[in-house]
Amino acid sequence: MLLKEEIAKVVSGEVEESGEKIQEYSRDTSIFEVKPSLVVCPEDVGDVEKLVAWVSEGNQGNWGNQGGQGSKLSLTARAAGTDMTGGPLTDSILVSFTEHLNHISEIGNDYVIVEPGVYFRDLEKELLAKGLWYPPYPASKDMCAVGGIVNNDSGGEKTLRFGKTHSYVLGMWMVMADGQEHFVEKLTPVQLEEKMAQKDFEGEIYQKTYDLLDKNRDLLAKTHPTVTKNSSGYNVWGVLDEYFDLTQLLTGAQGTLGIMTKVKLRLLPKEKFDKLFVVFINDLKQLPEFTSEVMALSPTSLEITDDNTFKIYLRYAREMASVLGANGVFEFFKLFFPDGMMILQGGIPKIILLAEFEGNVEEVEEGKIRAMEKIVKKYHMRGRYAKEKMDAAKYWKLRRDTFKLLREKVKEVYPTPFIDDLEVHVKDMPDFWPKLRAMLDAAKIMYTISGHLGDGNLHIIPLMNIKDPKEREKIWDLTPKIYDLVLSYRGSISAEHNDGLIRSPYLQHEFGDQLYELFSEIKKIFDPQGIFNPHKKTDATTKWSREHVRTA
């Protein structure tokens, strides 16, 4: 019997083995392409439970190439597919959530319960209508879905002040390897004892995870990342505290420990006023002191975009203006005249910085704008207050849509994210930045750089002809060298995009043998048969990743 026919007997949702959906789900926004054997669109949680149970109970059969990885079947969850790492790609069974598990279940005064297939743009619209918001959204907020946000432990422009996704997860519904949906939340010591006393798979998870982390407290203390953001590996540092919190471990696990079917997220009241100040920076040596003074004003965001990105943006300025509603010649001139004047005064800057301030008292935020004007003058920089909404939107489009712009408009080369999420301490940026650019320039790679200056997180997007084998080889030659540079500054190779196929093979090098072995033990506890999202986190190899780099 064909695998499709066998799976169709298990679930009520659609099961597809060919056609456009297979091709579409062979890719995300990464450099990889992996064709799934099947795409299953579960109709409800019951379908997910049945599917996991069927695979877990040994119903593997001899499927040959139908199952991927020889005869072994696995399950990889997918939401919107905007991942830049290959996280939701598989050659076995892909479980897609945007078709049916796409409901907002409940919106409370300070929380929302939502399914993984809900697009964030739809959730944001509902929340803002109630005066609420979810701050750590990524730049891809108009395209991504909740499942990816949680499973990658995403962050974004507001993370500087409000933190990342793991700080907002109040509870998760997960289908574990036993084929049952379990609710996971922060537990008191008494609640933890009750869980560990259970004589079932869930009880084993709590008992074994607690024992493993408890006996390795010294290792955890020694290896805790020193940068403010890290999505690499498993977040084993956030579990043991006053409470025992497995949501911290599962958030950012990329579906390798189970399949999330619903999540409860903390919300905040939306602040009333936001002000944007734009700075053109030429001297990188000024960054630490300048950033320190700006940070004293408590900005909500402190974002940067480099000169290469700005030049590409200017090439399509008329189109960008039209998208914003500035259609006529006068509107276009009005929108870009201030930028033109700043460029005439000092040329195209090496960095464009966006400093955003939000609050409920407009006079306070306007006071911060006046303080920014003084700081910019002190450092002899060029800067201005983007007072009009369309003016501010223009800069946010430059920052948020960089990757989208590159993918849609730059045809002769392809945006190739493989060093797209580095983080070092802000104080090290003036030393790190020129070394990074020198390595890229030496490899003769065109690239753009944007990111979050406030926490030292850079998004580097090389532009390469990946049809050329010599160009593809540069990926694997350059990656470990740049990671070594990052680690020499005690940084992270992934601050918020996570590991996937591109970074998982380097986790042992990043964290060392002991911690990597602990990660492997975590994987075995939750997924003893290795059915959840293989080739990510602990069972990854550069060989498998290299074999699946797309060539078109």
Fold topology:
Elements: H1 3-8, E1 14-16, H2 20-24, E2 38-41, H3 45-56, E3 75-78, E4 93-96, E5 104-107, E6 111-114, H4 120-129, E7 132-133, H5 146-151, H6 159-162, E8 169-175, E9 181-187, H7 189-196, H8 201-214, H9 217-223, E10 244-245, H10 247-250, E11 259-266, E12 268-269, E13 273-281, H11 287-295, E14 301-306, H12 307-315, H13 317-324, H14 329-346, E15 351-359, H15 362-378, E16 382-385, H16 389-400, H17 402-409, E17 414-415, E18 419-423, H18 429-442, E19 446-452, E20 457-464, H19 469-488, H20 500-503, H21 507-511, H22 513-526, H23 542-547
Parallel strand pairs: 2-4, 3-4
Antiparallel strand pairs: 1-2, 5-6, 6-11, 7-12, 8-9, 8-11, 9-10, 13-15, 13-16, 14-15, 14-19, 17-20, 18-20, 19-20
Helix pairs in contact: 8-22, 13-14, 18-19
Family: Belongs to the FAD-binding oxidoreductase/transferase type 4 family.
Organism: Candidatus Gottesmanbacteria bacterium RIFCSPHIGHO2_01_FULL_47_48
Keywords: FAD, Flavoprotein, Oxidoreductase, Transit peptide
CATH architecture call of the largest domain: 2-Layer Sandwich
- Report the β-strand fraction as a percent range: 15-25%
**Average pLDDT rating:** 93
Largest sheet: 8 strands, antiparallel
Number of domains: 3
